[in-house]
Amino acid sequence: MAHDEAPRRPQPVRGMQDFLGEQADRFDHVVSRFQDVARRFGFRPVHVPVLEHTHVFARSLGETSDVVAKEMYSFADRSGDSLTLRPEFTAGIARAYVSEGWQRFGTLKLFAHGPLFRYERPQKGRYRQFHQVDAEVIASPSPLADVELIAMADTLLRELGIGEGVTLQLNTLGDAESRAAWRAALVGHFAAHRDALSEDSRRRLEANPLRILDSKDPADRALVERAPGIGAFLTAAAGRFFEAVCRGLEASGVAFVETPKLVRGFDYYRHTAFEFVTDRLGAQGTLIGGGRYDGLIEAMGGPPTPAVGWAGGIERLMALAAAPPPPGVDVAVVAECPEAEHEALRIAQALRSAGCSVVAPFQGHARKRAEAAARAGSRAILYVRDPGQTPASVNLVDRSRDAGSAGRLAAIRARLPHPYGTPTGALPGSLPGSLSGPERSPARNDGDGRA
RNA sequence: GCGACCGUAGCUCAAUUGGUCAGAGCACUGGUUUGUGGUACCAGGGGUUGCGGGUUCAAGUCCCGUCGGUCGCCCCA
């Protein structure tokens, strides 16, 4: 069923969203907080394509995973190659690592963000084009890499104001040997009670038996309770690794809950698996999820390379994050009359070059422009008078009326071009950080800024 | 892919049991008020009630389909 006709009013493609205003601000806020935290942890940016050859995802995520089996946006390009819009970050980054020979850089700590695509039924916190922030540590076998990564995720959540109501669930899937033994035991356990399983879980038994462990079906729950845990199948080395991750998190001050039934959706995961979950987002409660994928890069054709990573849903994070600082600008430049138009432009450009954020409303007369300035959140308005008069003059007016206004006005005045600037020419600090200036009694009206 | 609910001006909503019900506020445009803590007043543009079909003397109001949204299942960040 294709729907190519253009309706009278165009609709976005199903599951795709348009962001403007507060929504767009919140989105950018999550990304900028993430980038800031990542850099403070010593991570570097990485950019990889949105399109990959289909097999990059098909092989690494597991042919039987739902994402590969029925949720990928795959198509043949004009040369007939099968390409896929990335449904996740890790496989593409692993592919790039192999393609570009990045093993020459030793351990890499990388972060990325951007759009992902999955053909799913849209729902709260789930969209067909969605966005993630992503972090990976590649080529480190140390449990301390897992610890640092998880601590970084924890820091991000805190700085977004999402501390409370979120719990970190932690588990280990063991190494390849442990995982295979556990999986076989689970299949044995559930197959023995096949009749009691829900229809969905009988299907999972073939495709992805670990997933039965987080079934919501009440009938399944009873069987899950009696299912074998990973513990009995853990090799000594895998047990020590998990222990080191737990002790490291405690030392880092990151609270977690051991969750033996926690599993991951993709085949490539080994050892550490974790999710930051909340009950405040309905059914899509995972904010950040990740784990270790030691076998993936080798399976991709690269050298044996241990790695860990996580991804967080931006739409989910922005739904819970504290409101970002209100958008605004330092000053609006308003021409009083048509004759002042060009002088206003000159002043606006000079102020921007000096580091001020400036809007210059261009619709309607001075009255309308002042209203537009208010709408833009400008903290001050600079009225520009007819420059044909002598002396030329401007009137700088405060809008915000808070304690820092006097300092802000002084900082703007100091950045005005000739002949309006402060005679002394002293620049009180740099913008915009110091634009708040020293605390003083608020100057209501700065009077006539004649130079 | 399955289920439930929903779809009226750009936005938020109104319209008695299907019968002058196509409206209000905000937004937008123009004007007036010499300007500043989102000033007030006047005027104006704008809707084939998502789309298509059906029932009826009559449908925004009922039925079917379709597209989209919301929530749940499933899946996952």
Give structural notes.
It is a single chain. By secondary structure, the chain is an alpha/beta fold. It has two domains: 22-175 and 235-320, BirA Bifunctional Protein, domain 2 (2-Layer Sandwich), CATH 3.30.930; 331-436, Anticodon-binding domain (Rossmann fold). It has 14 helices and 15 strands. The strands form three sheets. An eight-stranded mixed sheet has the order 1-5-6-11-10-9-7-8. Strands 13-12-14-15 form a four-stranded mixed sheet, sandwiched between helices. Strand 3 and strand 4 form a beta hairpin. Helix 1 (22-40) packs antiparallel against helix 5 (143-159), helix 1 packs across helix 11 (314-320) and helix 5 runs parallel beside helix 9 (236-252). The protein starts with 21 loop residues before the first helix and ends in a 37-residue tail after the last helix. The model is unreliable at 1-7 and 424-451 (pLDDT under 50). The structure holds one RNA strand of 77 nucleotides.
Short description:
The chain is of the alpha/beta class. It has 14 helices and 15 strands. The radius of gyration is 28 Å and the shape is elongated.
Q: Report the principal-axis shape.
A: elongated
Q: CATH superfamily of the largest domain, called what?
A: Bira Bifunctional Protein, Domain 2
CATH class membership of the largest domain: Alpha Beta
The profile of the biggest β sheet is: 8 strands, mixed
SS summary, helix count: 14
Per CATH, the architecture of the largest domain is 2-Layer Sandwich
Q: Helix and strand succession? A: HEEHHEEHEEHEHHHHEEEHEHEHEHEEH
- In round numbers, the mean pLDDT is 84
The proportion of residues forming helix, as a percent range, comes to 25-40%
* Span of the ends, CA to CA: 70 Å
Computed structural class:
alpha/beta
Write down the Rg: 28 Å
Total individual domains: 2
